């Protein structure tokens, strides 16, 4: 592997100022022969707004890591991580792709490149569930965008690094983007930005334009410039003039921020560095940045232009230097909070102090045309060995593991064992019906079938909390072209929903209509394409429609089944309540519905069953889903926001062999309970969307009128959007913001302001307004054309699911009329 940091340090010490860094393609060898110790593994996700440059950056990372020999490009459709045909032809990421690669000899980076489009938000949610830290990419022209805010929120307290990309673009502003980050995410919090590098521009000799050429490395006080003709050549220079001044001020600001939190650095600063900022060692700074990033007290910020291959190696360095390893990351959330869990430096996450306890989480299922079903898992503790018996604590099923793989986006590599901290793939026929997204897998690390040695009541009931699936908002009816195609259509739909649980199928028993539901128009368009082209379903689709739901206004009757031999089971359905005393709530994973049972039912009873209790509860849950999916009485829309409450004294015949029997009984009870409820006991729910709209100030009146009138929107706020060119402060002005962080001024915007005052005035005149509103999805479909005409094509908007809301009686009649 190539020694980026070693060269950099050598360059600094010996005065070498031009080096050609050669990539030795040893990545594949590395993965098969070297297993990084846990402290050298990084599980990261790349998250951002659509088009910020996630895939472009990932592609450069793979090139510099030696995984690929040429740099793929989203615009020509030959990237490694966007390997689906639709991703390549549309130039967007649709599904998150996981890939492992080495960095700096000993580190292994497991990276998940996620989609930016809001329709594929579930891909981001599931990636965030299994990664330890994030790289947030921002477009230096756009700054913080709607989806940046969304993914930042979703990533919660995971440690982050920000990469301000596209610094080469006209209008790029490092200063504005950092301020935007502070304003949106850090102001009023304890989290602070730390500038690891800042942009460096060179004047083009012919045009006199400033061109983004590299970065100033604040810690090592060097200028790094990339050769536009050769992605492998970086020139490293000492700093002088304005670059040196800016670097010094950044370093002082960095030390001030770090010493606010880090006593060790304060000591180093006062003692070894004798209170002199320039004497604080790079090693101490890096150690402090690492410590505080892992604690989520600071967010390191870097910049570059991935498309021009600028700034990617320092970003990779920052990933391994500052982001947590699996033994420093947040522990997974388990269903049983009383089970002890901690990090052990040697074995990673240790559950119940049991070194042999392997706990893994299935976060994604794919269907490979040759290998069949494959399941992505994150190993949290212990080791998962090929051939070992695994217990699925979500379903209660046991199965033997087949071949294990380490993923490389489109391809993957066989391994015998997956260890704590790793992301791997399970393959083989045994997983076919035994694992789905969100399942927890348990295994004994050493014995082939060591499950018997686990504590049945504690260890074998452990589950990692499942992934939240947002409700679908759009649907499209689907039917087979001929009756003989029905079965293959069902199989294809099944494959699709198994791979992407944010798609769902609803079946109207009365009309026989099948509806495929998804998160948005693009989501369904891609699903339709995949059904027809990849899964070869011979089907026809109806018009796109809003996915309405129904709910109930009050609790149903209690329905009871009692067998001759005293086997008793009663339930009722009720609207979701905040809390039902003494009861455990099991999410059904769809439409915000729950199963509610008396607390600790499993421990209260002497279960002597031939099938595990987990699989009986799973059967009850499965039949609750079927019962609620059959729909309400208004228009057969699936039921949403309902809880099925099982009476505390339920029992199961001791000789029960399969859970089938209980499945049928539960479903019938749910259906009877719902049938007995009169029609006016049901309410129609419609999806309400958060609308984020940016329009020129001159169009605010017309757009607002349309929103409040025809679209029934509730306007939440109207604010100024920054003008496209931020007037630069004068050279004497302080560039410190409220957080007292020094951010260097933008060379380009200074130039613009001085050169072209008139343009700047126009920009101020054309100031944009940002409107936030809540609007029913039904009223905002096909809004693109309307907004185009209202704003002469200058308006932009984003919608995102907010909640399901009950409709008024008038609206109900109008919606039912249109169906
Ligand atoms: N000028 C410039 N363009 C860039 C840069 N990085 C990416 N792009 C372009 O921006 C567009 C989007 O890049 P992607 O890498 O697909 O962005 P993404 O964030 O992965 O997009 P989604 O996954 O679809 O959300 C492409 O046309 C890239 O060529 C950059 O540094 N400079």
UniProtKB/TrEMBL annotation:
One Gene Ontology molecular-function label: GTP binding
Protein biosynthesis: present as a keyword of the record? yes
Pfam families in alphabetical order? EFG_C, EFG_III, GTP_EFTU, GTP_EFTU_D2
Q: Which GO BP terms, alphabetically?
A: mitochondrial translation; ribosome disassembly
Please give the superkingdom of this protein's source. Eukaryota
Spell out the InterPro entries in the cross-references: EFG2, EFG_II, EFG_III, EFG_III/V, EFG_V, EFG_V-like, EFTu-like_2, G_TR_CS
Which keywords fit this entry according to its UniProt record? Answer: GTP-binding, Mitochondrion, Nucleotide-binding, Protein biosynthesis
Q: Does Chaperone count among this protein's keywords?
A: no
The protein's job, in short, is: Mitochondrial GTPase that mediates the disassembly of ribosomes from messenger RNA at the termination of mitochondrial protein biosynthesis. Not involved in the GTP-dependent ribosomal translocation step during translation elongation.
User: Which NCBIfam families does the UniProt record give?
Assistant: small_GTP
- Recorded protein name is Ribosome-releasing factor 2, mitochondrial
Q: Which gene encodes it?
A: YJL102W
């Amino acid at each position: 592997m190539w020694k980026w940091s070693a060269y950099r340090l050598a360059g600094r010490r010996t005065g070498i100022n031009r080096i050609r860094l050669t990539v030795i393609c040893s990545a594949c060898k590395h993965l098969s022969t070297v297993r990084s110790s846990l402290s050298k593994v990084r599980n990261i996700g790349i998250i951002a707004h659509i088009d910020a440059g996630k895939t472009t950056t990932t592609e450069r990372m793979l090139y510099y890591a030696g995984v690929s020999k040429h740099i793929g490009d989203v615009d020509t459709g030959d990237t490694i991580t966007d390997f689906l045909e639709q991703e390549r032809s549309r130039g967007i990421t649709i599904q998150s792709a996981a890939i492992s690669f080495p960095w700096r000899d000993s580190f292994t980076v497991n990276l998940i490149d996620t989609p930016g489009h809001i329709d594929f938000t579930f891909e981001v949610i599931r990636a965030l569930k299994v990664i330890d830290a994030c790289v947030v990419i921002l477009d230096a022209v756009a700054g913080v965008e709607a989806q940046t805010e969304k993914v930042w929120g979703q990533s919660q307290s995971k440690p982050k690094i920000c990469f301000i990309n596209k610094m080469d673009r006209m209008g790029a502003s490092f200063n504005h983007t950092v301020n935007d980050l502070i304003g949106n995410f850090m102001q009023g919090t304890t989290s602070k930005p730390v500038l690891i590098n800042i942009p460096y521009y060179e004047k083009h000799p012919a045009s006199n334009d400033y061109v983004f050429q590299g970065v100033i490395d604040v810690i090592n006080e060097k200028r790094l410039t990339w050769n536009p003709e050769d992605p492998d050549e970086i020139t490293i220079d000492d700093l002088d003039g304005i670059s040196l001044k800016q670097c010094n001020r950044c370093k002082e600001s960095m030390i001030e921020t770090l010493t606010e939190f880090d006593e060790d650095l304060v000591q180093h600063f006062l003692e070894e560095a004798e209170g002199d900022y320039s004497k604080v060692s790079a090693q101490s700074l890096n150690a402090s940045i690492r410590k505080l990033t892992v604690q989520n007290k600071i967010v390191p910020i870097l910049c570059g232009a991935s498309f021009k291959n600028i700034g990617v190696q320092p970003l990779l360095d920052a990933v391994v230097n500052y982001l947590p390893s699996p033994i420093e990351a947040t522990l997974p959330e388990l269903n049983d909070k009383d089970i002890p869990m901690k990090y052990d430096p040697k074995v990673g996450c240790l559950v119940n102090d049991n070194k042999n306890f392997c706990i893994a989480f299935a976060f994604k299922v794919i269907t490979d045309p040759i290998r069949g079903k494959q399941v992505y898992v994150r190993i949290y503790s212990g080791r998962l060995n090929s051939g070992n018996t695994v217990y699925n604590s979500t379903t209660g099923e046991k199965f033997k593991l087949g071949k294990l793989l380490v993923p490389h986006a489109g391809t993957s590599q066989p391994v015998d064992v997956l260890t704590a901290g790793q992301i791997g793939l399970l393959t083989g026929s045994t997983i076919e019906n035994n694992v789905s997204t969100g399942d927890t897998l348990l295994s004994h690390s050493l014995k082939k079938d060591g499950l018997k040695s686990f504590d049945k009541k504690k260890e074998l009931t452990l589950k990692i909390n499942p992934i939240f699936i947002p409700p679908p908002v759009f649907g499209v009816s689907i039917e087979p072209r001929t009756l003989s195609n029905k079965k293959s259509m069902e199989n294809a739909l099944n494959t699709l929903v198994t791979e992407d649980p944010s798609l769902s199928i609803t079946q109207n028993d009365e009309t026989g209509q099948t509806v495929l539901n998804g998160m948005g128009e693009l989501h369904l368009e891609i699903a339709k394409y995949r059904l027809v082209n990849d899964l070869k379903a011979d089907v026809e689709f109806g018009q796109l429609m809003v996915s309405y739901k129904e709910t109930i206004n009050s609790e149903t009757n209690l329905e009871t089944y009692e067998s001759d031999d005293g086997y008793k089971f009663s339930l009722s359905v009720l609207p979701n309540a905040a809390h039902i005393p003494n009861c455990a709530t099991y999410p059904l994973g769809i439409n915000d519905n729950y199963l509610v049972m008396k607390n600790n039912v499993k421990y209260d009873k002497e279960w002597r069953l031939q099938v595990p209790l987990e699989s009986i509860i799973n059967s009850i849950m499965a039949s609750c889903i079927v019962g609620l999916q059959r729909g309400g009485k208004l228009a057969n829309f699936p039921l949403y926001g309902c809880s099925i409450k099982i009476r505390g004294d339920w029992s199961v015949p001791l000789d029960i062999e399969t859970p089938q029997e209980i499945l049928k009984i539960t479903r019938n009870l749910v259906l009877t309970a719902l049938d007995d409820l009169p029609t006016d006991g049901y309410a129609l729910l419609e999806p309400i969307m958060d609308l984020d709209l940016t329009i020129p100030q001159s169009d605010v009146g017309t757009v607002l009128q349309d929103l409040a009138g025809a679209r029934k929107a509730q306007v939440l706020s109207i604010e100024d959007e920054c003008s496209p060119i931020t007037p630069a402060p004068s050279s004497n002005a302080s560039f410190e913001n409220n957080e007292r962080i020094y951010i260097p001024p933008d060379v380009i915007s200074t130039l613009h302001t001085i050169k072209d005052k008139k343009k700047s005035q126009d920009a101020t005149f054309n100031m944009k307004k940002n409107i936030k509103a809540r609007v029913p999805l039904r009223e905002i479909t096909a809004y693109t054309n309307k907004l185009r005409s209202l704003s002469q094509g200058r308006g932009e908007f984003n919608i995102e699911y907010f909640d399901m809301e009950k409709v008024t009686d008038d609206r109900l009649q109008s919606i039912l009329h249109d169906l």
